[in-house]
């Protein structure tokens, strides 16, 4: 095991070698040097540079000295960069220590995949260095190499190692393509596919399933961030195409104030779409866990033949906005749209459709959601997000004996001769809910949910601005002394 001097040179504390049963209880901060624990954002302080004494004579490896030297070089480069990443430098330091403990020759980075302390990113960097060195030697006709002298007498990679590295690099590159996971990437590599150009040639299309072919078609497009003005241009195009009877709005990340978006999410309503499904079961007592979005009844025939699929999507396809379909639900459509740009560059409909066929232009992910007009408030909350904020709203409703979903705020009502004025029966709420083991009679009543303000008022909470609904960073905690779940919001 490396000495304390070795660990000090790496910028780390010497690992504790006491009682193994107590090792896991030590604070993580104790493994880091004191001057690395706190960083001042205001002063822009950087991590300490590697000590000049940290040379190869300190880090001696019987079998893998060249790999140790390479990792130390990467660590020094990271520390000396304009914006050093301390955690990345620490990863290289830990990898050095892990390699020093390996008592066998390492042929490629793949030999380190099971070694604790060496991540996949470092494995990839080692393999890339090996391939680059090998290619350089072959180009120059060299017969020896310092780094790979142990692999073969000629200094070049032996055929087995070379094939392993090439296969690993191919799988890694294919895995980066949207829609191509590691399993499909491995199958493609085994079939002889080496890169994106090979995939686009069509020779390997039989190995792709479902949405993979569509995502491949728009590779280089769908992974790009969407600017706010681009989403606004799509909104303007939809409003002009659909007509004034449709109410179309941007929701999701756009409404939460994000500068760049992962998709264009749009909420659409129309006076003729009034179907509001009943919730599936009566409200249950709140639990300590985070509330999940309640389920609604099964999809009805009315939902399957609604305006979204009979009018909206076909029209936007004919207008040259929508390009391909990724998924379809009763009241939602997800797919690919060609960005129309400003009004002055829209051009002719025929030209737009022709550009889609040639994959000419910029293509981005888009989702369309058709909602009943009387559910606009609740749908606006759900589609704006984020998920944690919606979960908190669901929990608040449960605490008050109600249920919240994308169709509204509901209350389970037992029939009585006296009607409740504030209850507004929905188009479906006059019918009894599906049978449930916890109740024999009753029906769902839809509380006024036309606007977000209506729902916040019913839940006795102030209106929350959409830009303040990014709650994903909050961790839910429950005190061990109390089983009562605390709401996120005051």
UniProtKB/TrEMBL annotation:
Keywords assigned: DNA replication, DNA synthesis, DNA-directed DNA polymerase, Nucleotidyltransferase, Transferase
> Which residue ranges does the record annotate as region Disordered?
1-21
Q: Give every DNA-directed DNA polymerase X domain span.
A: 62-470
- Assigned GO CC terms: nucleus
Q: What is its EC number?
A: 2.7.7.7
Q: Residue ranges under compositional bias (Polar residues)? A: 9-20
Q: Which GO terms describe its biological process?
A: double-strand break repair via nonhomologous end joining
Q: Where is the active site?
A: 125
Q: Is the keyword Lyase assigned to this protein?
A: no
Q: Which reaction does it catalyse?
A: DNA(n) + a 2'-deoxyribonucleoside 5'-triphosphate = DNA(n+1) + diphosphate
- The keyword Cell cycle belongs to this UniProt entry's keyword annotation: no
Q: Which superkingdom?
A: Eukaryota
> What cofactor requirement does the entry state?
Mg(2+)
Q: Which parts of the sequence belong to the Helix-hairpin-helix DNA-binding motif class domain? A: 110-129, 172-191
Q: Which Pfam families is this protein grouped with?
A: DNA_pol_B_palm, DNA_pol_B_thumb, HHH_5, HHH_8
Q: Which GO terms describe its molecular function?
A: DNA binding; DNA-directed DNA polymerase activity
Q: Which InterPro entries match?
A: DNA-dir_DNA_pol_X (IPR002054), DNA_pol_B_palm_palm (IPR028207), DNA_pol_lamdba_lyase_dom_sf (IPR027421), DNA_Pol_thumb_sf (IPR037160), DNA_pol_X (IPR022312), HHH_MUS81 (IPR010996), Hlx-hairpin-Hlx_DNA-bd_motif (IPR003583), NT_sf (IPR043519)
Tell me the enzyme class. Answer: transferase
Q: What is this protein called?
A: DNA-directed DNA polymerase
Q: What is the source species?
A: Agrocybe pediades
